[in-house]
Amino acid sequence: MGDSAGESKLAGQFFDAAIGLLQQVRDGDSAEIARAGAAIAEAVADGNRLFAFGAGHSSLAAQDVVYRAGGLALMNLLVVPGVVGVDVMPATLGSALERVDGLAGAVLDSSPAKAGDVLIIISLSGRNALPVEMAMNARALGLTVIGVTSVAYATETKSRHVSGTYLKDHCDIVLDSRIAVGDAELTHEGIEAPFAPASTVVTSALMQATLAAAAEDLVRRGIEPPLLRSGNVDGGHEWNGRVMTEYGDRIFYRH
């Protein structure tokens, strides 16, 4: 029950928890965010490509930076069939596929990703075979790998990859979301399970902050960031058409 009609105590507690986590990543990850932004800017400047990958709910933050107003037009979603969202039936199949050995290598081998490109891999736990192998294979191909994960899982859970390692162990840059194991910020008397996950809020913020840092770095290099405008504002479609034409060889979600 809330303290008064129309007010929820638990809702307020969730906002407080999310704000606290955002402050932690803003302060604690600032140097790594800058490094990640510089790596993305360098790839753009050198004519290379950008990819983002996440499985399950971690895919939400990856999708959030692909083909959207205010985002970099060059960011492409690296899709692994069956693990992108809850549209797969049964939903539990997506979780099972994250543990399949060899799937990441097959996906990368059939993707347009190549040496010099940047791949952002989002995995809250970083313990399943799919994100671990994705990072290992990507680095072997010569990609720069940015991992977005909760480092806490590496000390409080057991890896599900045969190597015993985690996503964080195979990245050039690691952004720590600082989400507690279990991804649930609240507990309450009368509710047996913890609830109110904040990983999507925090991870999406990390992604947007990183792309903001990339835009800043591109300007410093004298390069206009290839950003998309909203199609719901006057001139937006025309602007986006020009950007997509100029960078068409590095945009794969149109084909």
Can you walk through the features of this model?
This protein is an alpha/beta fold. The protein is 41% helix and 12% strand. It contains 9 helices and 7 strands. α1 (9-28) runs parallel beside α8 and α2 (30-45) crosses α8 (199-220). It comes from Streptomyces zaomyceticus.
DSSP helix fraction: 40-55%
Q: What is the average of the pLDDT values? A: 93
- What is the strand content? 5-15%
* Total number of beta strands: 7
Can you count the helices? 9
Category from helices, strands and their pairing: alpha/beta
Could you give a short description of this structure?
It is built from 9 helices and 7 strands.
Could you outline the blueprint of secondary structure elements for this entry?
Elements: H1 9-28, H2 30-45, E1 50-54, H3 58-63, E2 75-77, H4 92-97, H5 103-109, E3 118-122, H6 129-140, E4 144-149, H7 152-156, E5 173-176, E6 186-188, E7 191-195, H8 199-220, H9 236-246
Parallel strand pairs: 1-2, 1-3, 3-4, 4-5
Antiparallel strand pairs: 6-7
